[in-house]
Write a structure and sequence with these properties.
two-stranded parallel sheet; 6 strands; globular; alpha/beta
């Protein structure tokens, strides 16, 4: 869904060469994915050439895919959207790794900050019945604390549209290694 949406925005705003690199688990590991539906939507909207689909074991922790993303981001400024495993430790790890590849003047976005305890939404796939599970919002909160020199947290999406699944999940890169950190 989000890969098709972002590819559609690249087409709408006529951004030459803009491409979405979608990294997800293989279908046998991610029962909720609907590869066919997403790829058909991309074809209908004529944006299939703007999406590089990657269904790989380990998702964003797969070394081959990480090498590919690092290579592509070294060639042109990149915006990165984290929307994979919504466990706190995985999301935080992913944000830390992707943060060094986001270009100055671009965004790092963490999706689904509305699940688990923060906003009170119920995730039907992982109900968090005891209310103690940490997820994307908590990862984003901790990321903000450790990256204030390089990133500014914004919430323009939910302020502009009034509804978002990424509340407080947008981080604008204002500087590169302002404190000399890698």
């Amino acid at each position: 869904g989000s890969a098709v949406w972002f590819a559609s925005m690249l087409k709408l705003f006529e951004i030459p060469g803009g491409k979405v690199i979608s990294v997800d688990l293989p279908l046998e590991q991610a029962y909720w994915l609907s590869k066919h539906r997403a790829e058909e939507a991309a074809k209908r909207l004529k944006v299939e050439d703007r999406i590089d689909w990657n269904y790989v074991a380990g998702g964003s922790k797969n070394e081959a895919v990480r090498d590919k993303v690092a290579q592509l981001c070294s060639q042109a400024p990149c915006m990165v959207i984290s929307d994979s495993d919504h466990d706190y430790s995985h999301t935080y790890y992913e944000m830390e790794w992707y943060a060094k590849h986001v270009g100055v003047g671009h965004y790092l976005v963490v999706e689904d900050t509305n699940i688990y305890g923060w906003a009170g939404w119920l995730n039907i796939n992982d109900p968090n019945q005891d209310g103690l599970k940490k997820g994307p919002m908590e990862s984003a909160n901790d990321f903000e604390l450790s990256h204030r020199a390089d990133y500014v947290r914004t919430d323009w999406c939910s302020k502009h549209y009034g509804l978002s699944q990424t509340q407080n999940g947008w981080f604008f890169r204002k500087a590169k290694q302002a404190r000399g950190l890698s």
